[in-house]
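Apologies for my clumsy wording, but are you able to produce some protein sequence, whichever is easiest, and the tokens describing how it folds?
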Amino acid sequence: MASVAITNGIPFDEPEAVVLPVQLADFFHTTPAVLAQERFRGVGVPYVRHGRRILYRVKDIAAYLDANTQEPSAR
């Protein structure tokens, strides 16, 4: 049986997988309503609309985290 790295419901070793807003909200320690506001404002993690359902690709979540990682600055 293959080992699957899952972090708070996000299977990062399966980049083509998709997660629901409630799963992403749990990972980010926020609410699905905050994610909805980000979608409305055009910011945040890219998403896929499938009918009325919103899905987030794991590869887009990983890319968003990489793009928004801040390194501490030396003083």
Notes: The mean pLDDT is 90. The CA atoms of residues 45 and 65 lie 9 Å apart. Strands lie at 6-7, 10-11, 18-19, 48-50, 53-57. The radius of gyration is 14 Å.
